[in-house]
Amino acid sequence: MVVIETPRSPRSRKSAKFERYGWLYMRFSGVALLVLIFGHLIINLVMNGGITQISFAFVAGKWADPFWKIWDGLMLWLALIHGTNGMRTIVNDYSERPMIRKTLNVALWVVCAALIILGTLVVTTFDPCVDSSVSHTLSVCK
Ligand code: HEM
Predict the structure, then answer these.
(1) CA angle 108, 110, 106 (to 5 degrees)
(2) How far is the CA of 81 from the centre of ligand 1 (A)?
(3) Span 41-65, mean pLDDT?
(4) Position 100 in a domain
(5) Mean pLDDT, the chain, as a whole number?
(6) What is the predicted pLDDT for the residue at 7?
(7) Is residue 92 in a domain?
(8) C-beta contacts of 57-66 below 8 A and 24+ residues apart
(9) N or C: which end of the chain has fewer CB within 10 A?
(10) Which residue minimizes the CA distance to atom 10 of ligand 1?
(11) Residue with the nearest Cα to atom 30 of ligand 1?
């Protein structure tokens, strides 16, 4: 009988339980990202004239609807945590010196946290109407 071991990076110092949740997260977030990323690409780059429609007004119009803010926010959080956790696995698999491994892993999560904070700030505070030289051209500001 084939025995499948609990997923675990050989040099990870996290518990097997943490690694199991990490493994599951990669699968569930992967499925969600398929919908979010391909939906994003189709709507932005294929439908309604494709890439030529992309402009400040396009973004302003899209983010006037909370649905797209949630969509983009989810894509930001899920992809960054997914990518960082994937890189953590690669670092734990390939870096042999504990000091380098620790430094790379800390750097990964610091960058991930910084990008999530900055991205979330952009998505939640974006206001296309603050600049009057542009806002008079936007229907969402009228
Ligand atoms: C289309 C959506 C995506 C799907 C379906 C997907 C799926 C997966 C799955 C199932 C794994 C685990 C592979 C394994 O353990 O052997 C994985 C690993 C990984 N993913 Fe994604 N992913 C997607 C998007 C992304 C994005 C946007 C990023 C970057 C931000 C990313 C970066 C990574 C990295 C770095 C790994 C680790 C690779 C490894 O362990 O060798 N993925 N992905």
Answers:
(1) 55
(2) 10
(3) 92
(4) yes
(5) 91
(6) 59
(7) yes
(8) 57/128, 57/137, 57/138, 59/126, 59/128, 60/128, 60/138, 60/140, 60/141, 61/138, 61/139, 61/140, 63/123, 63/126, 63/128, 64/140
(9) N
(10) 27
(11) 83
